[in-house]
Amino acid sequence: MTTNSTVDAPPFAVVAARTSAAAIVAYQVLLLVTIFIRPELDPVHQPVSEYAIGRHGWVMMLAFLTAAVSYASLLVALRPVVHGRAGRAGLGVLGACALGTAGVGVFIADPLATPLSELTTIGTLHVISGLSALLLLPSLRSCSAQD
Questions:
Q1: Of the N and C termini of the chain, which has fewer Cβ atoms inside 10 Å?
Q2: pLDDT tens-digit readout, 60-112
């Protein structure tokens, strides 16, 4: 049985939606790979940003960038079908989350034990990027609930 969508999305939006879904699955796979190749880190007690530090850190950086691609692709997929002030605000927040997550992938965190007064510039940019993405994601949910 096939079902027809009630919203006619342009072909590029369908491709973007599929890209978003594939990218977030890839993020989860990369995260699991990172946890297995870094057994010295405890995923329960250490943030995933810690996995980007060191020899295999590139895998976690790639994972963060893949999540950013997922958010950006979702933005492209939703743009033609989202209307209204709250919807546009939600798309703006989603765009900010994509940028923040990309920043987390580009700027490597300082070790968790680093005092705030001793954070490097790159570590500070990581914290700012990460906090913006983490703080805005709940806002995105509230914007979509209003439409």
A1: N
A2: 999 999 999 999 999 999 999 888 998 898 899 999 999 999 999 999 999 98
The answer to whether the beta carbons of residues 27 and 63 sit under 8 Å apart is yes
pLDDT, tens digit, for every residue of 99-135? 999 999 999 999 988 888 899 999 999 999 988 888 8
Two structure tokens written together for 96: 């900010």
pTM > 0.90: yes or no: no
46: alpha, beta or left, given left = phi > 0 and alpha = psi -120 to 50?
A: beta
Q: How far apart are CA 37 and CA 34, in angstroms?
A: 5
- For the record, the structure tokens of 47 come out as 């943030």
Estimate the share of the chain in helix, then strand, then coil, as percent rounded to the nearest 5.
70, 0, 30
